[in-house]
């Protein structure tokens, strides 16, 4: 296969995932036919199944590939308050950029156990990342407190992005958690 063909394959696959994410978020997984996904992506219906053996595989891919990657950027020696502020700003940005994935997870996790499992792994990954940075802070509380603060921050940001989208929410959440130690 030539480099040009591989690039075309990647672009077609990306268009399929983009289309699925848009349609699953707007109409729900059950109400979205793969033919609609193909039409939205501008590919033949068979191409959807070339890249994704089942519709569920496509759904899980939209959740996995459009989520937090676990790469917080926090300066060395950052205090707990600084870690929380940095994590809140970065995660809020990620969650906002991938809001369609969040809509899909909230809608489908109750009926698709696989979606719930992927979502739980992603939430635990982001929580663990924040907790590790908190634990490295010079003024870090104990491990349990770091984990609890991280869990509260991540959960609060997810809910805030989904239900209110208040631009001051992430900052306020970080400030409250930093003061609650």
UniProtKB/TrEMBL annotation:
Coiled-coil regions listed: none
Ranges of the DNA-binding region feature: 33-52
MF terms in GO: DNA-binding transcription factor activity; transcription cis-regulatory region binding
Domain HTH tetR-type, residue spans: 10-70
Entry keywords, A to Z: DNA-binding
One of the Pfam families matching this protein, by short name: TetR_N
Keyword DNA-binding: yes
Protein origin, superkingdom: Bacteria
Official protein name in the record: TetR/AcrR family transcriptional regulator
